[in-house]
Write a structure and sequence with these properties.
Number of helices: 4
Order of helices and strands: HHHH
Distance between the termini: 78 Å
Radius of gyration: 22 Å
Oligomer: single chain
Structural class: mainly alpha
Shape: elongated
Length: about 140
């Protein structure tokens, strides 16, 4: 006989209306996504190098593409993916050493990962634009 306390009105497991994704799970997913994005970005880097070897016309076209708004957006995204993945690797290394495993520490490290990747990406781009003499 069914237990009268187990009502059909309530779910037996967490569902989307009450379940909150922990920041550590979100960062884990982003770490995997950025790892995949780095594969694509590395193919673009190889394409850029091959265009340099293919001649002036191929390299000029590739430089035009990289300098276009879409190309700059791809480069910005690649920079962020690289920074996010690197900081995620450092976060995992800290955990492998047995540090930062408490609930508050895990969440704090995950937030630092996200904030740090954004700040580093912006700094890299500011320094890069400054080093090139500004946007002409």
């Amino acid at each position: 006989m069914a237990d009268p306390k187990l009502s059909a009105d309530r779910p037996l497991s967490p569902h989307l209306q009450i379940y909150r994704w922990p920041i550590t799970m979100t960062m884990s997913i982003l770490h995997r996504v950025t790892g995949g994005a780095l594969y694509v970005g590395t193919l673009l880097l190889a394409w850029w190098l091959l265009s340099a070897a293919a001649g002036a016309q191929a390299f000029a076209w590739m430089q035009w593409f990289i300098g276009s708004p879409i190309g700059l957006l791809v480069l910005f995204g690649y920079t962020w993916a690289l920074m996010h993945h690197m900081l995620g690797g450092i976060r995992h290394f800290i955990w492998d050493l047995g540090h930062g495993l408490g609930p508050g520490d895990r969440d704090r490290l995950a937030r630092y990962n996200l904030i740090g990747s954004i700040v580093l990406t912006i700094l890299i781009w500011i320094i890069g634009i400054w080093a090139l003499g500004g946007s002409n």
